[in-house]
Amino acid sequence: MKVKIAMTFIALFIFAGATALATAQDTTKTTHKKTRTLTGCLQKGDSSNEYQLTTAKGGTWEIKSDTVKLVNHVGHTVTITGVLPNATLHGVKEDAKAEAKEHGVDKDSTEHGHMTVTHLKMVSDGCSK
Q1: At 79, which CATH number?
Q2: Residue 66 is part of which domain span?
Q3: I need a labelling partner for 64 at 20 to 30 A (CA). Which of 28, 72, 103, 119 fits?
Q4: CA 72 – CA 95 distance, rounded (Å)
Q5: 119: Cβ contacts below 8 Å, ≥ 6 apart
Q6: What is the pLDDT of residues 75-92, one digit of tens each?
Q7: Do the domain assignments include residue 17?
Q8: Kindly report the CA angle at 92 between 89 and 97, in degrees rounded to 5?
Q9: pLDDT for 95-126, tens place per residue?
Q10: d(CA 88, CA 99)
Q11: Do residues 76 and 127 touch, judged by C-beta distance below 8 A?
Q12: Whole-model pTM above 0.85?
């Protein structure tokens, strides 16, 4: 009888732990995700295959792609989906910036990152300021 009670407790403990782990994985901060979707104004970057996306909140992203023709959308508002080369490091950096903002340091700091674009959808053929 004691063995059945102990086994039931162990089973419940394992189930609760697995449920908590699954929930924690679903609540990953946006800044920590490997794949991101952003909307903003696409401009030409400094090198031949580099572009910059500026979001409505002022965030800037240096973007590139081997599969999407970004050149056709320079000066357009676009929604892009892509992969961050090091999502964990990007998330830690953005967390530090958010913490600094809370303490009054660099209140105008915006998100900045690098992304390899895998999908692009044109929103409009111009960029609004």
Answers
A1: 2.40.50.140
A2: 31-124
A3: 28
A4: 34
A5: 68, 80, 81, 82
A6: 999 999 998 886 555 556
A7: no
A8: 125
A9: 665 666 566 666 556 778 889 999 999 999 99
A10: 17
A11: yes
A12: no
